[in-house]
Amino acid sequence: MSIGLRGGAAIVGVGTAGLGEAAGFSTMDIQALAVREALDDAGLSLRDVDGLYCANMSHVFPALTTLEYLGIRPRWIDSTNVGGSSFLVHALSATMALQAGLCDVALICFGATLRSSAGRMVPAAEQPIYETPHQPRYPMIAYALAAARHMAEFGTTRAQLAEVAVAARGWAAMNPDAFERDPLSIEDVLGARMVMDPLTLRDCCLLTDGAGAVVMTRPERARELRKPPVYFLGGGAASSNRAVSQMPDLTVSATVESGARAYDMAGLGPQDMDLLQLYDAFTINVILFLEDLGFCPKGDGGRFVEGGRIGPGGDVPVNTNGGGLSFTHPGMYGIFTLIEAARQLRGEAGARQVDAPATALCHGNGGTLSHQATVILGTGDTL
Fold it and tell me: Cα-Cα-Cα-Cα dihedral of 152, 196, 83, 323, to 10°?
């Protein structure tokens, strides 16, 4: 266990902007709007920010571009980019920086106009040179391979994958900010256009614009601010590969390691989690992560999600905002897991509010099942 990191920092403000479509706005524009909302949420201002963490798909130097746009001079910046899991790594790094005195108020932020720019940022991502001669369709091919292997090895069905999308839509129907809110059935998912066998369009995440921001500070200051602090209890990260072709096992992700490290730091286990925010770029992600995080044995993920178990009314609330499948997905989703967890733990989620949660597990996925990061958050009662 890392002494000093458990409870060593707290989320004190969260914000979003430009969700869905933000035509006429740039990445930096909507990111700044999310930052303003998060700082207002915390009762702080840009003058208080002296630590900056950001990553995106459009800027080579996102932290430098962001600090210039915002007009701030932070003492500490970090632009670590490991894909969609970057922001959970940032939460862990920010906790370390706050504890080390490198900064007093850490801002984590992200923005992308992926829908408005018609997905033009995606090809800019570097791809493995030994895979590109085969002309793969990224990122779908990686997750289709994982899903097909899981089906072949464990008997997972397309209907079980569809359960994940239907549960996400059930939560999104109660979220006024969700991009897709219309009813969705298992039959709708199975009957949707096949994107890459065995995944249909409804097994795949949205393509949207969107920005998010999270403000963190040390516990003593957090307790003096506007909203109840949401404490960092544990975190962990792990990497297994860059190219999906180099994954040791398509059905086992490095989440096994990142989750174990987060649980160890927090002194908690799967049985202690009240809600889960799992990176759902594709339906197979949720099934893999439920297994790798210890909520069910390997191979049982499909059966675990049956019967609406992870949707509204189920006993394992997963992706209560609607996730990347129905809420928003601007190319990198990880920051939204932290934002939704904070809102749930503060009791601010409206119609989708889970009953009195004290703990939340957030999990981010980067690349093509390449990098995994897990963060456990809790209310003051968990300290």
Answer: -90
